[in-house]
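Today's session is about reading a structure prediction critically. Students often jump straight to the picture, but the first step is always the sequence itself: look for stretches that repeat, for charged clusters, for runs of hydrophobic residues. Only then move on to the predicted structure, which in these notes is written as discrete structure tokens rather than atom positions. Here is the chain we will use throughout the hour.
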Amino acid sequence: MTETLLDQAWRDCEAAPEDTAKRLRYYGRLLESELVLLLEHEPVGEHIQPKVFDLEDGRIVLVFDSEERLTEFTGLPSPYAAMSGRALVEMLAGQALGLGLNLGVAPSSRLLPPEILDWLAQMVAERPEELTSHAVALHPPKGLPEALLLALDQKLARMEGLARMAYLTGVEYDNGTRGHMLAFIDPAPDSEAALARAVQAALGFSGVEAGMLDVTFLPADAPRAAEFARVGLQFDLPQPPESRTPDNLPGSDPDRPPRLR
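Below is the predicted structure for this chain, in token form.
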């Protein structure tokens, strides 16, 4: 079976077990992955019931990073719900449940105890702070670690339809401080909070001491947007197809998990 991005991230961790940066990037990859959760039975309306296994060290649920791997484990088609790792962590936090990931079917096979899930949920629950200073000058970004740029690129590649593009620049504020800013161009209505949290997550799990990265939102015809385009590093966000058939089945939206029973 083809090695997945999650397999690769875990392999990097195994190769350097004391490398905190690689471990953080692994957890970031886990949160970004689309996972399938093994269920006790088919969903009932919007509610799901994960299949719980009692082990010596506690109770766990099982997830896999593909339907094929779930079927390889169970030996036959089984009921499941699909969701992002982030949504799964938020759903399981505080439930005293561990997580069995790709058990016995992949290089990334491992058990995550409840305290790891609670820590991850706390990480993704943090909210960005609003700026009080104003940008007075922009310049090309300099000195940012490659790991952070890669984390941003991977994160924004999952934010389909939330903005047209983004520009990363250096910035100088009216209080004399300097930093970096990411400007989202033509954000979708009510998408600002989700985009800001995505950037914060990329920072938190990039595994580098990158300092603060500020975020702003601009329409494409704003005068400042042209300045960002002139000096900034561009990130293109994927756009939705022209038409899409809605799917209301439980678990069909990776970031909106069904309700637990």
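Discussion point for the tutorial: The longest strand covers residues 165-173.
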